[in-house]
Each structure stands twice: as C-alpha cells, then as structure tokens.
User: Which sequence fits this backbone?
C-alpha cells in the first residue's frame, strides 16, 4: 500500500470482534468475522477498525492487557478447533456460555474457555512431532516475548492470579535467572499451554487477515499507548517503566479533575522512563510498533497525546486529584526504515516527541490531535 492509496478518501466501520455473534458467548475470528469481511466488501468499505486484541485482565477492558504482544484467547474460534479434530463439538456445547445473546458473561467465558482450550492442547501435544513442527517454529520465532508471557501467566495462576507485584516469591518478582529456570521446569505444562494458545491465536489471525486483505479490506488496529501494571510487559521489562527499587510504580497514569469528574481519573498504568528509552534508542517502542505493523494494516495509537506530555499521579493514590503535568522536550524519532518526518508541535508550542508519520513496511497511522 503506497502513500497515495493510503491517503485516498475511503470509509470503514468500527466493530469490536468480540461483538460479533457467536454461540459460545463472545465474538471470535471465526465464520462471523469472515462474514463481516464479506459485508464490508459488498458495501464498499475499505477499513475494519477494531479494538485492541490483547488478552484482557481484571475488568475485561481491551485497554488493560496482560501483554502488548499476545492475542486474546477469547478470540480463538472453537469451531475451527473442532475442524482440526482438537475439540469435539459436544465438549463445547455442553458448557454454559451465558444466557443473554446480547451481552457477554465474562465470568462464564473465563471459567469455561480455558477448560476447552486445555482439552485442545492435550490432543495437540499427543500428535506426532511432524504435526507440531509449525508450533515449535512459532515458539522459536516469537521467543523474545512468548517465553516471558507464558511464564508470567503460569506463575500468575500458580499464585492464585495475584498481580506479579504481589507474588510471594521475591526472586521470581525480580526475575532471578535461577528462579526463572526453576518455575519454567515446575510449571512446564502450563508454560506449554500458554504458548499453544498464542500459536492458535496467531494461526487463526493470519488466515483471517489474509482473507480480509484478499477481499480489499484493511484491518485498522488499536494500540493502547500504556501497558497494564499487571502485565508480562512490565514484569519482563522493568527498566522501561518508572518504577522504584522494589518495582512498584513511582507515578501512574490518569487525568486531573474536570467538568465531568471532580476527582479526575486514575487509570493506574505505569508511566515510561523516557530517559532510559532515549538511551536505548527507543528500541522497546520500535519493537512494539513493528509487531503491530505485522498484525494490522493500519494502527491507531490510543492516547497518542502522551508522546508530547502526560499527567503523573504519585503512587499509591485513590483518584486523580494529586497530579503532576509532565512535558517532555525530547524528540521521539521514528526511524524504522531510514526515513522520518519532523515532529509535530503540541498545543503549548513546545517541540513534541510525537512523530507525524512513521515510514514502515505497513503504514502506521497516528490520529491527528483534537
């Protein structure tokens, strides 16, 4: 997709994948997703805009995810797993996925989805090694994030789903190498399961995206600018974030009181250590953008304004009344393929670290300031 095609006037529809119809409680990248692509094609639409597709954490918000790289296990289509003989349909239909067809019962989804995915995992692991070759290749290709995510989810479940900052073993909280090896061996089955789940998500996603693109539909993705405090990203990359010596946040994200809220908003996301990011050439951010560019055709960065300035709420806090306004004067240069454009100006007139355009294999779209 060249620049002229990208900037040509076009239209699309915002539709969260989870809102698609499904007999199993939540929309997936299954037949209903393919049908929606057909609808977009026949109605002359170019873009399907979606919400973030990462695994949701407490509260089930797509903007609070356990990983910026992992896909949501809820989006894996169970009927496709039946077609692969990894599941038997009766194993799915026998479970309670919720009574209201217009609402998602996340408690029932959480309690039942992983039961059937583990059945599929056990059947998959019983296959001949030749049939698992693509799985091993996937694990090796994505080892930079997959191993940390799979171990994080396994240890989290082992400790009763507590946030990693509350795990009783300080050595694993602080990622002691010997302790990481210990838990990888102790929880080997679970680590393998979480890797399998991502393998199936990405396999189904690749087929779905190819079908959309072959039919002239581009996937317009959504990337939250912040990651969740309770995430594999924060646990595995503490230097990237503004944390203290015990790996607790110094300040968290939010916004001050305004007309709509007398106490402001406390989002709770850890803030970035932009000094460390600058010293490391923003490598963490470039890897994140590169990953999004492979998953989506166009990427929206949610709350991109925080590249220019952001609010910092000293931790711990109950609301957004005690807040600091931080303005960065460093330039965030996006130079992934040897090209960058000058940063835009923020409303205060100071130079912003937010780039106007990133030139990548697939175009990254940064929405304009409002």
Assistant:
């Amino acid at each position: 997709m060249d620049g002229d095609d990208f900037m040509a006037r076009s239209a699309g529809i915002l539709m969260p994948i989870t809102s698609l119809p499904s007999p199993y409680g939540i929309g997936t990248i299954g037949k209903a997703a393919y049908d929606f692509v057909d609808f977009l094609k026949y109605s002359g639409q170019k873009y399907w805009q979606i919400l973030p597709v990462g695994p949701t954490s407490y509260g089930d918000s797509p903007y609070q995810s356990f990983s910026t790289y992992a896909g949501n296990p809820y989006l894996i289509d169970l009927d496709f797993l039946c077609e692969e003989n990894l599941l038997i349909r009766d194993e799915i239909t026998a479970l309670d996925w919720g009574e209201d067809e217009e609402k998602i019962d996340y408690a029932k989804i959480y309690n039942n989805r992983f039961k059937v995915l583990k059945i599929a995992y056990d059947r998959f692991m019983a296959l001949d090694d030749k049939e698992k070759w693509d799985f091993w290749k996937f694990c090796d290709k994505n080892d930079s994030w997959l191993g940390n995510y799979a171990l994080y989810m396994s240890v989290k479940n082992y400790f009763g789903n507590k946030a990693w900052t509350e795990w009783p073993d300080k050595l694993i909280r602080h990622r002691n190498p010997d302790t990481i090896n210990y838990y990888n061996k102790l929880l080997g089955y679970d680590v393998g399961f979480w890797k399998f789940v991502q393998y199936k998500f990405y396999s189904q996603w690749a087929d779905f995206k190819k079908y959309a693109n072959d039919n002239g539909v581009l996937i317009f993705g959504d990337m939250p600018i912040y990651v969740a405090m309770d995430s594999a990203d924060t646990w595995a990359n503490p230097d990237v974030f503004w944390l203290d010596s015990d790996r607790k946040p110094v300040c968290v994200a939010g916004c001050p009181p305004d007309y709509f809220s007398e106490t402001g908003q406390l989002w709770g996301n850890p803030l970035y250590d932009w000094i460390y990011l600058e010293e490391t050439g923003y490598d963490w951010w470039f890897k994140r953008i590169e990953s999004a560019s492979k998953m989506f055709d166009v990427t929206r960065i949610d709350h991109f304004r925080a590249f220019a300035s952001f609010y910092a709420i000293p931790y711990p806090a109950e609301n957004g009344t005690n807040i600091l306004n931080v303005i960065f004067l460093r330039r965030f240069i996006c130079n992934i393929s040897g090209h960058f454009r000058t940063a835009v100006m923020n409303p205060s007139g100071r130079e912003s670290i937010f780039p106007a355009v990133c030139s990548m294999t697939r175009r990254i779209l940064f929405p304009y300031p409002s």
Notes: Confidence is low (pLDDT under 50) at residues 328-370.
